[in-house]
Amino acid sequence: MLITCPYCGPRDVSEFAYQGDGNRNRPDPASTDLVAWNAYVYDRLNPAGAHNEIWQHAGGCRAHLAVVRDTLTHEILSVRFAREKGAPAHGRRKSGAKA
Ligand SMILES: [Zn+2]
């Protein structure tokens, strides 16, 4: 599987470290909403298809990347720097929403 880093170009997945689900929205740190914190810590999507993920190019430029990967085919559908603002390439779940 190749991931095209926006800075380095196409690289083998062995250079990257999976950093987690890209759909999570962290509640305000001062929040005492236990339902929202429970959802943030424990709830994960498990789609059969496009999925937002965070990867780090650990063996390269060390940039964090927002990747959309098809979980059925492992095809990489899009890659951008995670620090870039804007809507994810695939729908994002609202905090606390059930999948
Ligand atoms: Zn890179």
From TrEMBL:
Enzyme class of the recorded protein, top EC level: oxidoreductase
Molecular function (Gene Ontology), one example: sarcosine oxidase activity
The organism's place on the tree of life at top rank: Bacteria
A Pfam family it matches: SoxD
Transmembrane segments: none
Alphabetically ordered keywords of this record: Oxidoreductase
Gene3D superfamilies per UniProt: Folate-binding superfamily
EC number: 1.5.3.1
Name of the protein in question: Sarcosine oxidase subunit delta
Native species: Aminobacter niigataensis
Lineage of origin: Bacteria, Pseudomonadati, Pseudomonadota, Alphaproteobacteria, Hyphomicrobiales
